[in-house]
Amino acid sequence: MLTIAMPKGRIFDEAVELLRRADYALPPEFAESRKLVIDVTEEQMRFILAKPMDVVTYVEHGVADLGIAGKDVLMEEERNVYELLDLRISRCHLAVAGLPGVKMNEIAPRVATKYPNIASTYFREQGEQVEIIRLNGSIELAPLIGLADRIVDIVSTGRTLKENGLVELERIAEVTSRLIANPASYRLNSGEIERLVDRLAAVIPER
Ligand SMILES: Nc1ncnc2c1ncn2[C@@H]1O[C@H](COP(=O)(O)OP(=O)(O)OP(=O)(O)O)[C@@H](O)[C@H]1O
Ligand SMILES: O=P(O)(O)OC[C@H]1O[C@H](OP(=O)(O)OP(=O)(O)O)[C@H](O)[C@@H]1O
Question: Which ipTM score applies to this complex?
Answer without folding.
Answer: 0.95
